[in-house]
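user: can you give me the structure for this one chain? tokens are fine.
assistant: on it. calling the predictor now.
[tool input]
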Amino acid sequence: MNSGNRLLNLILRGLSLSCKFLLVFALARMLSGADFGLYNLIVVTTTFVLYLYGLDFYTFASREMILVSEQKRPFIVYNQLALYIFTYFLISPFLLILFFSGKLSWNLLPLFLSIAILQHLAQEINRLLINLFAPLWASFILFIRSGLWCLALIICMFFFPNLRTLHMVFYFWIAGLILAIIVSYYKLYQMGLPIQYMGMPDIKWIKKGLIIALPFLLGTLSLNAISVIDRYWIENHFNLSLVGVYGFFASLTGAILTALDATIFSFTYPKLIKAVGESPAAFQTEYRLFRKHTLIAVGLFSILLLTGIYPIVLWLNNDLYLQYIAVFFILLLSNIFIALSMIAHYALYAQKHDKPIVIAHILSVIILIISLLIFARTHYLAVAVSVCITSLFLFVFKHYCFWQKHVQ
């Protein structure tokens, strides 16, 4: 990729991220507290469902796609799609539990399932384009499915107040996903990867991939379960408006990890892997540099958030956010712990020490549930404190495991 394309790629990804945050700010101001809370529940639930649909199979398929010849690539895409269609039919009925239990309204069922399935397809196509060495197109598709529709919705809701409804948010979301998939299919067709019927899927190949991918899935599901459990706990013990407040502050403080991933992690991780293959000294040099950059970035992003939080809350013009602003500070500390834990996380992962990472993520869910049961039955702030305790555990556990492996 030349320098011009690299810059355009960075701009598209920056726009996608910016539009997502603008949408959160706009919805927090324009929707009712209950509707914004429900929107947060839908977002975290669909994000979790994506992992159930995908089974982390991309960890296997991505490597296969890169290694095989061009003639065999349609075979991989076809078998991936066959597996995903199967998981859609297998997993979707279990999601009805959310509706039977009253957590989500039945009138949202078609929208919820549409968003979950379309979001997963669009995400997998994004990964496919990256593996096919078309990163600029992948960023363009990402902008369509994560940025363009957000921008269009904000403009429409600003000029037409009658469009400020939760259903309208979901309609725009679905439209953005459909457009992204259509454009993606056109690009894949151009690249000689038309999606067409190729007979019975290769069950043996799919099984081989699942054996490799499923161990990763357990850790991924455990870590992502945290952002589902905390919000549903608040919905169950308090109310949807407080889910909205919590979700807003969680999105704001979560920007630290998003920014780190875009500016440091995605660039440094390959260097760590390369250094591991060279020598222990090379790894130590790269690790120290990685740690230094992460610490500086966490400090800068934290200062930026601390500086901007009160102007943002006052702009929202909702006393509830000011009343519970302590949630922001607790979740900020929580995200700092998570961000710093990623130093050891990537170091362990680069050295192929996957087991401690999976164990840490599984234990983190157990610790969160225990903390919630002890502290957060009647105290809203205690939910954020429980999440912070969980993040502290991840920080300590991962660094201890890295230190132990390093000493050995």
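assistant: here you go. The chain has two domains: 1-215, 254-408. The longest helix spans residues 280-316.
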